[in-house]
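Input record (one chain):
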Amino acid sequence: MSEQFTIDESETGQTLAALVRRHAWTTTWNDARQLITRGKVFVDGKCQVDAATRMRLGQSVRLHPRAPAPVEKPLGEIVYEDSQLVILNKPSGISSVPYETRETGTAMDLIRAHWRTIGRSATTSPLHIVHRIDKETSGLLCFAKTREAERALQQLFRAHDVERTYRCVVHGQLTDRRIESRLVVDRGDGLRGSTRATRQGKRAVTHVRVLDPIGSRATECEVRLETGKTHQIRIHLAENGHPLVGERVYIRDFTKRGGVPIDSPRLLLHAETIGFIHPKTGKKVRWERPVPEDYRQALLRISRR
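The corresponding structure, as predicted from the sequence alone:
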């Protein structure tokens, strides 16, 4: 077990959890995450409790098994809750739902943790999945509390009757546009992407509106989803030559063309608004949350360069 190591080129861009697991080679994924979330891992001398943090070349990581646990800060924000649904403002780096066996610390766990703090049973209160946003994306996420609400909301999503807008920062100078394609799980090189085959894939439509050019290297945009497919925004913008800042997956074509990725500690994509017809009252409801502090700080660093 290595108590201290430095990030080399082969490890650049990997998550802190993956590297802690590799260097503390006797640990499981869960053990690695717990070392981090319990305040036992320090990056460049500072305690780092986010297991999903992407590491940069030359950073120093040290394990302190006897370090005191950090004071826990509440993660996420319950924006709205009634008898039918819960709206959560999810931080970046938190999965919407468990994707790995025994994965903890998801958005569902954040809601249940909140319930426990107010004396409600987290094991008997139902919570149903309506939609998802990417782990590295922050912003508004909806869960249903009854089966009836789950069915009604999922029907709204399938019919594209849900208002969803995102705030993001992309590489390069972008212009307003409508992007439509058919998305497939594997475009031929192991990545999700668009296909030219008219009878394959799922129709996806994205509307992009420029908000603020950031010099010549980046542009901040508002994105409205007409459809909502897995990684739709990330794929459409990357395939248009303007991958999101902080992108780690759909960046391959950009770098092959000689593009230089802008360094960012997180993916600059935030689910800013969500609105729909309430499944019980039949009234239009809508919520909005501005970009979080880590997004603002990353944007400020880009604008100063």
